[in-house]
Design a protein that fits this description.
The complex is a heterodimer of chains A (117) and B (116).
Chain A: E1 4-7, E2 10-13, E3 19-25, E4 31-37, E5 43-50, E6 53-57, E7 64-70, E8 73-78, E9 87-94, E10 107-108, E11 112-116
Parallel strand pairs in A: 2-11
Antiparallel strand pairs in A: 1-3, 3-8, 4-5, 4-9, 5-6, 7-8, 9-10, 9-11
Chain B: E1 4-5, E2 10-14, E3 19-25, E4 32-38, E5 45-51, E6 56-59, E7 62-67, E8 72-77, E9 86-93, E10 105-106, E11 110-115
Chain lengths: 117, 116
Amino acid sequence: DTAVSQTPKYLVTQMGNDKSIKCEQNLGHDTMYWYKQDSKKFLKIMFSYNNKELIINETVPNRFSPKSPDKAHLNLHINSLELGDSAVYFCASSQAQTPGHKQETQYFGPGTRLLVL
Amino acid sequence: DQQVKQNSPSLSVQEGRISILNCDYTNSMFDYFLWYKKYPAEGPTFLISISSIKDKNEDGRFTVFLNKSAKHLSLHIVPSQPGDSAVYFCAASESFSGAAGNKLTFGGGTRVLVKP
């Protein structure tokens, strides 16, 4: 019973297409994230949602639009895909962070490998 | 602008010996540090963490050391086992930054190979 799941696991598509990646967590967490791992293997945060509300947006192009229908789901829609969007996208979740307290552990999904041709 | 750096991309160690992974950071606002382990085709999994009020945290075979003045932390794995072969990521956050305290800044990772 996977804690954080993502679909699809692999996605190959043409430049200019629109695609969505879905994420679900069954941990009862309030906060969900999207990270991008680029070709140099750096993991960088893209977005964070707390209880369906956007709290972090790391200057990601507006072709990327996260949507959180409920606190257990955070989907990522990408418009007009570009070659540079090819990467592994990881979803994660955690309890909401309380200022001044230890970082709540973030639990990651298995990743979605996106290849734009 | 890499605020968290892992300068060794790879490390090879004999089974039973100690693995030492290093991580440096530049942002003095970071006050919470974590290590994640990642196997191929899987997501990162949390390993161990340390708050800036401590200089050492130990959990079984894993110990993390923090040197705040040098802005440096290290992960020691002893004894190393073949199952420890993975990529290890160092991450940091600013726990006092409210909502932004959720944000983890990752290093580039160190690939560890433990030889039997």
